Task: structure prediction
Amino acid sequence: MSQDSSGQVFGYPIPGETALEPPAAWARLRQECPVARVRLPSGDEATLLTRYEDVKQVLADPRFTRRLTAADAARVSEAGGVFDGDFGTAIPPGGEGHQRWRRLVGRWFTAKRMTALRPAIEEMAEGLVDDMVKRGAPADLKACLGFPLPVYVICELLGVPAADRDRFSHWSDTLLNLTRYGKAEIAAAHAEFTAYMTAHLTAKREQPGDDLLSELIAAGGEEDGGLSDAALVATGVGLLVAGHETTANMIGKMTAMLLADRTRWERLLADPSLVRTAVEEALRFDANAGFGLPRYLGEETEIGGGVLPAGTTAVCNMAAANRDDAVFDRAGEMDLGRSPNPHLTFGVGPHSCLGQALARTELQAVLTVLLRRLPTLELAVPPEELRRVEGLVVGGLRDVPVRW
Result:
């Protein structure tokens, strides 16, 4: 277990005092114990990395893999979830197989394709803001805008009905479990989600559409350079979870960060050209980003001036690394014009987030629409009263009460 200079022992994750503020322990760990032993919710021990260069090295190093089902890998959650068990094993975790999967799926998430989607995303945001305004203030920005928008977009890309979004949300939460659900609930949700996606893919084979899953089916099976049936199901499930849960939470957190200090919102109103860099800074500054990324080390490796033995599970805390003063000038301040901004929120290297262009496009579109439509937007509660999402590997706010 890691210990700070006062002798305090850390369990992990380490919560901040409020939903928008980083834990004070992050800075101490970066300075005094950048390669730390921590105990996970499962009870297993892992190595926590909080310094920018160490996190970047591990995420970019192909020797650190997602093979968290290895016998000596640390389990993240006692009951299971996306990092434990066989949820992701149908998609190759590394090597040429993983790169082939990324090439097949990545065609749908290019920056060029996302730029072409932006007018439609802004139109969706306009409609959701209309509905929120009609219902009147105060409103929950996460429920009215943050959650439905990314769901509509990813459902459109995958060709699945957005009307099923409440089921997707429950299934996603169980897969993203840290401490909220038990094994039976997770197994039931996984079985339901798999059955749903299998039936959806069968329907797509009979009636293809202009969507990502139809294109993946048309590419053929593994023998044709395409994906196996199991990999198709895992891809559909994985994209549905990743495509809405993280961005839905980030829309709420970004808006809350910008409204927590009114001068930030006023600066954007005065200069909307800052939207792009403001989105990047919100991604960097997010102190409530969730668990981080666990990686399994199959061979002995030097990290942070020490040697990690084979069999180590390293947890990369990108949010802590994004506050590293050795890399970011005034890292503890939110600078809406910060450039360059090499944050690690989307990871780095061969496993960097496939949907980052989509996430950026959605966040920029939402912020543009909110600034234009609701210039008087403000939080309806003090920032310190915002409540964090608990028990999942993703960070977020339970709700974002606003008025205008």
In short: Residues 54 and 303 are 6 Å apart (CA to CA). The first helix runs from residue 24 to 32. DSSP finds 14 helices and ten strands in the chain. The domain at 24-403 is CATH 1.10.630.10 (Cytochrome p450).
